[in-house]
Every structure is written in structure tokens, then in C-alpha cells.
Design brief:
Structural class: alpha+beta
Number of strands: 11
Order of helices and strands: EEEEEHHHHHEEEHHHHEEE
Distance between the termini: 38 Å
Strand order of the largest sheet: 1-2-3
Number of helices: 9
Strand content: 15-25%
Length: about 260
């Protein structure tokens, strides 16, 4: 799992370095300068998807996938610097002593911990001198390249831009939270199929479980509208030769058809 962390290991949303933690709690990368992300993350292209598949260069494309977002942040940090959220984090991490909480649906619990942290942090920021200051604009020399990495609600967000002397963008690379989680979402769908698919017919229960698994990651492609039960979904069953032997469709009204 990957997220930003403060130098002292605390949960961080805007600053700090990048940390990657393996399933047994080992820090594979720690306090990596976010501007050096390209030295550690590669992006794989697959013919059947418009989305890229990022992976850690150190582990390679087959074993280097990772997850970002609330679950990754709560798993990766050493502590949270607000008392109530930290108490909740300790309770959460106690589920897997020495390891990471891996359940996909634990994303929702992690989000609640972060909401609590944000509420506590807002109270602290009310008296922050930077927010009460009058400096609204910063001037300085224009650099040819700018890289910004923050923790968006969905997860780590990387923006990388290059500009020419006229200020026009000549190159841009974005790795957004949903892209980081792309492989994990595919694996979640695979897990649902392995658990619920009988090899003959796609059931409504399987369709619902796929939606539950995908929505846990809060992907922007399916829930930007926040319309409950209105995510159109098509699941097809194909033979090895490509013949489609079953197809179940849920439209935007939530109605099923074959």
C-alpha cells in the first residue's frame, strides 16, 4: 500500500514523502521525495483497457501492484496527530497485529477514521497563522517542470507538467487515485467471480457483489454522480474461443436484462 507520510511517520495529506508498505508491515520505500516518483513507479499499458496499470519498478509488473486511498493511508502511517482519530486507528490496526488490514470493505472504516481526523484538524486550523495571513499570491521564477503529489480523498494524486518559456504545457502526466487502484479493482472483481460464479450463469447476486467491490475504492468512473444504484454494469461470460454464452446487464435505472 502506498501513501504520503510525514517525516516522523504521521498521517499526511499535503506534504511529506512517499511510503510503500508490504502486507507484513515492511516498509519497502520510505520518505521518498514525491518529485522522484518516476524513479519508483512505472505504468503498464494493456490492449483491452484505456486505463494504465501502475506498478512498483522494484517488484516488476507482475508483483508490483499496490493500493492507495484511505485504507492505504491508515495502514501506512505510524500514527495520526489528532487524539480521537489516533485512538480509532489503533483499534483498526489491532485487527491485524504486525500486518496490514487487507479487506477491501475496510476502506469504509478507514474513511470514517479520516473524517474524524479532518474534523479534529479543522478545529486546529481555525487559528493557523498562515490561513489568517494576507499573502494571497507568490511570485518567483517560472520553472520548466512542476510535480505535485497530494493525498486526495480517493488516494495519492500525482500531477507532472512541463512547460515552455511561453508558459504553454508541452508534456503532462497524471496518475490519479483510480489509476493507482486499477489492478486492485480488477483483482477484486476476479475474487468475486471465483467465490460466486458457478461456471454456467451470471447471477444478480454476483453482479451486486462486483458493484460492492468496485465501489469500495470510490472510483471516479462509477460514482462521481453519487447516485445510489445507478451505476450501469455489463458482465459477460465468454468461452475460450471468444463466444459470449451469457450476458447480464443492469441499466441506469437499476433494471436487469439479458
Amino acid at each position: 500500500m502506498m501513501s504520503l507520510c510525514r517525516d516522523d511517520g504521521a498521517l499526511e495529506l499535503y506534504h511529506g514523502g512517499m511510503r510503500v508498505v508490504t502486507g507484513d508491515g515492511h516498509k519497502l520505500l520510505d520518505r521518498i521525495d514525491s518529485r522522484e516518483y518516476h524513479r519508483h513507479i512505472r505504468e503498464q499499458v494493456k490492449s483491452w483497457s484505456y486505463m494504465k496499470f501502475p506498478y512498483l519498478q522494484q517488484l516488476g509488473p507482475e508483483h508490483g501492484s499496490y493500493r492507495v486511498g484511505p485504507l492505504a493511508r491508515i495502514n501506512s502511517c505510524d500514527y495520526i496527530d489528532t487524539p480521537l482519530a489516533e485512538r480509532s486507528r489503533v483499534e483498526f490496526r489491532a485487527l491485524e497485529p504486525g500486518g496490514l488490514v487487507q479487506s477491501t470493505l475496510a476502506y469504509h472504516w478507514a474513511r470514517m477514521i479520516e473524517l474524524l481526523h479532518c474534523a479534529e484538524k479543522i478545529e486546529q486550523l481555525l487559528d493557523d497563522p498562515d490561513l489568517l495571513g494576507s499573502d494571497l499570491q507568490q511570485s518567483g521564477e517560472m520553472r520548466p517542470r512542476g510535480i505535485g503529489v497530494i493525498e486526495a480523498p480517493r488516494g495519492t494524486l500525482i500531477h507532472d507538467y512541463e512547460i515552455n518559456p511561453d508558459g504553454l504545457v508541452t508534456r503532462a502526466n497524471l496518475i490519479v487515485s483510480t489509476t493507482h487502484n486499477n489492478r486492485a479493482m480488477n483483482e477484486s472483481v476476479r475474487t468475486v467471480a471465483a467465490d460466486l460464479f458457478d461456471g454456467r450463469e451470471i447471477s444478480e447476486g454476483m453482479l451486486n457483489s462486483i458493484e460492492v467491490a468496485v465501489r469500495a475504492y470510490d472510483p471516479c468512473l462509477s460514482c462521481a454522480t453519487h447516485a445510489l444504484g445507478k451505476m450501469p454494469l455489463v458482465v459477460e461470460l465468454q468461452e475460450p474461443d471468444g463466444r459470449i454464452i451469457d450476458r447480464l446487464i443492469k441499466d441506469t435505472r437499476g433494471e436487469l436484462s439479458r
